[in-house]
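Email to the structure team, subject: AtpZ/AtpI family protein model.

Hi all, the expression group asked for a predicted structure before they design truncation constructs. Nothing fancy, just the tokens so they can compare against earlier work. One-line instruction: predict AtpZ/AtpI family protein, return tokens.
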Amino acid sequence: MSSRTHLPQGGESVVWHVMGTLLAGPALYGLIGFGVDKLTGWSAGLPVGLVVGFVLSGYIIYKRYGRDDAPGPEANGDDPERAHADD
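Reply from the structure team: attached below.
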């Protein structure tokens, strides 16, 4: 069973999930930073929250949709990248 069974089918759906994650991360952490600004008077909470949100949403996207494992030799020793139909 693939570790990527939770992925949505179709390219358009993946694009909407990526866009939603890219918007939700900075919005959530920016809101948290804004709250920290108001509670403590620290004026850097909002910018720090936005940056943390962008970084975390980028990491989540990379982990969820990032590069698949490169194909390697199979259990029988055959390398799928070197296999040719005319051999």
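The chain has a mean pLDDT of 80. The CA atoms of residues 73 and 79 lie 4 Å apart. Ping us if the truncation boundaries need rechecking.
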